[in-house]
Write a structure and sequence with these properties.
- The protein has about 90 residues and is mostly helical.
- Helix content is about 70%, strand content about 0%.
- It contains four helices and no strands.
- The longest helix is centred in the C-terminal third of the chain and has 24 residues.
Length: about 90
Amino acid sequence: MALIGEKEKKEVIETYKLHGTDTGSTEVQVALLTERINHLVEHLKIHKKDHHSRRGLLILVGRRRRLMRYLKKQNYTRFETLSNSLNLKIKD
């Protein structure tokens, strides 16, 4: 799987956290998954036959979709803000 560096991870957490000690809110989880997905997409552009990584990508996309569905049910304004800031295309 495409792992992101510790520095990038801290930057993402700082950007999307809800309060001072937040590291696991839905927004942070979705943002970290999006970062990993973007890394995998770039990897797959180069290595087109890497089917193991492609499967990992599909798993991550499904996990992100479930988290976004949960956030949409719980708080639609937070969902909308997050999807706009990450440039996600959300189907209703």
